[in-house]
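Researcher: Hi, I'm a grad student and pretty new to this. My advisor asked me to get structures for two proteins we've been looking at. I'm not sure of the right format, so I'll just paste the first sequence and hope you can take it from there.
Model: That works fine. Here's the first sequence with its structure tokens right after it:
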Amino acid sequence: MEDVDDERLHLERVAALDIGKATLEACVRVPAKANPARRAQEVRSFGTTKKEILLLAAWLSEQQVEVVVMESTSDYWKPPFFRLEAEGFSCELLDAKQVKALPGRPKTDKADCVWLAKVAERGMAAKCSVPPEEIRRLRTLTRYRRHLTEERSRERARAEKLLEDAMVKLSVVVSDLHGVSSRAMMEALIGGCRDAKVLAQMARGRMRSKVGALEEALDGAATFSDHHAFVLRMMLDNIDRLSAQVDKLTAQIEELIAPFERQLAQLDAVPGFGRTAAQDLIAEVGVDMSVFRTAAHLVSWAKFCPQVKQSAGKTKGRNSRGKGNRYLAGLLGEETVSAGRAQTRIGARYRRLSKRRGKGKAQVATGNTLLTIAHALLSDPTAEYHDLGAGWYEARTQHRRQVATHLRSLQRLGYRVTLEPVDEVA
């Protein structure tokens, strides 16, 4: 046996919080006064109100705590984290999956905060990314806007089902059931009009070419009863209310995102991204890419790459990517489908992959590409996106085939060839 020296502690003076909705347990571990090689600890209970958290802050200041760590428990971690951060403490958020107590340990709030302090002082868990305050304010608005937009989409789907129930096949002819022409027809139905020809004549613009089809689709309007009109009126009012709220949120978001206009313009230039999508992306990942050392770290954090698990030479699972930020996942899913319709390099990638691997995997792979591009743009304020074109993959494949063909020809003649490109274009 030989004596070995343990590694130095990652933190000398640390506090850990086990947080609930109404109370929290705080454990402070510092060097012992009698023997600095040993540790002294104390556990106290506090409430989660502002007054109680300020008392906690005063106690931590007395103990000269360097870092305060806590688990990401629902949304309950936010009040202590933000208040202590405002008081000047360095706060770190840890993933609950990484700091689980070992089997056989007692499971109490006090034991949990002591274990969390021990994990933190040894640097045994990586901290989670918590964006700065200006990004957090922006994120609150963008996420609520997404919730309202999703609710509006659900309400629109309900309106379509109601029309189907009344044998009004308007959605078969029109692409946007809530466009100007369709909305005028639905308002007329609510007002009591049941004549298919009169309703069809309300078409505007290019819809005028579909008057005949509209008359046939609206032929069942006679079965549109008063109770259908009553419910449809409520649905349309709800859609209008949600649209007005979305517009208010968008106006407020435009004010908050003004300091990041340069980054917004960079992302807006990427095919598939629009101004709204760029706002949502900045709200979720921020603009400081030093948090993610490489694009691969950002992609892994977003869970847009396969999480391979192997044991004894066998791959477990089906390379599922796990669950990441659901707001970011929803955003990238929408943008990849949008980009897939465009004649761009990203669109070509989506279409190539969807043919071979299916649309689900194509969305993940294309989302990976979009995040990699976003990381490169946000890391360099002077960078600009230039699309390589929809034919980039075909041109690269053809170039490789020509090179491989010539190499095989020379090898058959007995030559060993080493290739060196003349320039970057080659």
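Researcher: Oh nice, that was easy. Here's the second one.
Model: And its structure:
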Amino acid sequence: MLDIINKYGADYKLVFVGDATMSPYEIAYPGGSIEHWNEEAGAVWIQRILKNFQKAIWLNPEPQDRWEFTPSIKLTNELMEGRMFPLTINGLSEGIKKLRQ
């Protein structure tokens, strides 16, 4: 991630694509990953990325009606400051509008 932050300027737009379904511990706590030891919580990296790239959205393929009931999606959407959109035609349209603001 530091490579991306260091290589691309703040004028770039960033689009995350993924379901954000993981253990909430991966987002909230250092060492929370089940696959490897992460020195910093995932939230630190999301905040770091968003600090550099003001124009960023997250496209989520999970049905939007499930987001509120999946803790990691809810937490990621909060970190994204509500800039998570469903991976649908309408969601893409809304996400692009947000990136253009």
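Researcher: Is there anything I should tell my advisor about the second?
Model: You could mention this: The beta strands are 14-17, 56-60, 84-86.
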